[in-house]
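Review form for a predicted model. The reviewer records the input and the model, then writes brief findings.
Reviewer: anonymous (R2)
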Amino acid sequence: MTADQLKICVCIKKRPIFARELENGEIDSVSFSNPRVIVHENKFKVDGITKYIENQEFEFDNTFNDNESNEQFYDVSVRPILDLVFNTGTITIFAYG
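Model under review:
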């Protein structure tokens, strides 16, 4: 769904894992499947030895993985509301990161 079809639209764009994170042995622990984001959290069972992964799932209006371009993000999230902006509408865009 595009931003102009919603009153409030929350879109997420995943950043790629950094080279230094890979060098430190870190792994990418976030999966994206529009409109879902799944955070894979490493945990230990109560025995303190057995490892397992707990998945936390979140859903947004649109999600973009690290392989999708900023232009794709713009086309879905910003471009559809530009007419509103130029025709005396009011919008707020909050970007973090």
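Findings: The helical segments are 19-23, 70-77, 82-86.
Further findings: The chain has a mean pLDDT of 88.
Recommendation: see findings above.
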